[in-house]
Write a structure and sequence with these properties.
Elements (H helix, E strand, L loop, with lengths): L1 E2 L7 E2 L3 E7 L9 E7 L6 H15 L11 E2 L4 H4 L7 E7 L6 E2 L16 E13 L2 E15 L12 H4 L33
Parallel strand pairs: 6-9, 7-9
Antiparallel strand pairs: 1-8, 2-8, 3-4, 3-8, 4-6, 5-6, 8-9
């Protein structure tokens, strides 16, 4: 993937709900990355303006086809049940530099407290690229600040063993499982990005 060298201009994102946070260790893509889900009504104007400026600086116009980093939650199965077409998610990445993650007091955040489902924002920049002959634009990730709590995604968090289990006799050692779907896993590979409009 060929990238263009742009001037590094960092801006702060709006507050978003954290999903797939790989900010303490790299993902399977060998990158630090984090997705932020922005609810309907979030002002994404500064992010869009920064992206559009970089596109026009490199190509002079918006190429077609083109990969934008703004995607509708309703088009991604893992988000579609909870979010609608006006809720947007954006992924932020850093190839080599591990982001500094802090809490509301600007103290270093622990990995356990930065969970999928909490709220955060980050400093970001933008870069253009061409992959497989298709041009696109992505957001880089700088420092990250956790700004709020919420229900964890994916059932994370400790449960109560008194609610989970029964008292067992000495001979109780088998678990009966009901038949169910084997298709437990969602594919999180990036697909075709949404158009600019």
């Amino acid at each position: 993937m060929a990238k263009n060298k742009e001037e590094l201009v960092f801006i702060q994102t709006p507050k978003g709900r954290v999903s797939f946070p790989y900010v303490f260790k790299k993902s399977k893509n060998d990158k630090y990355e984090m997705t932020l889900i922005f609810p309907e009504g979030t002002d994404l104007g500064p992010l869009k303006a920064l992206a559009k400026k970089a596109v026009l600086a490199r190509w002079g116009k918006i190429p077609k086809p083109f990969r934008w980093p703004f995607r509708r939650c309703s088009d991604k199965p893992i988000y579609a049940k909870e979010y609608g077409p006006k809720d947007i998610f954006v992924t932020f990445r850093s190839k080599n530099i591990k982001p500094i993650v802090v809490n509301r007091k600007r103290e270093a955040a622990e990995e356990a407290e930065f969970y999928p489902g909490c709220w955060a924002w980050c400093k970001c920049n933008v870069y253009t690229y061409t992959e497989g002959g298709t041009p696109g634009i992505s957001f880089g990730m700088g420092s990250v600040q956790k700004v709020g709590e919420d229900d964890p995604f994916g059932g994370m968090g400790a449960s109560n063993p008194e609610d989970d289990f029964e008292v067992l006799d000495d001979e109780d050692s088998e678990v009966d499982y009901e038949d169910g779907d084997d298709d437990f896993f969602s594919d999180d590979e990036d697909g075709e990005a949404e158009p600019w409009e």
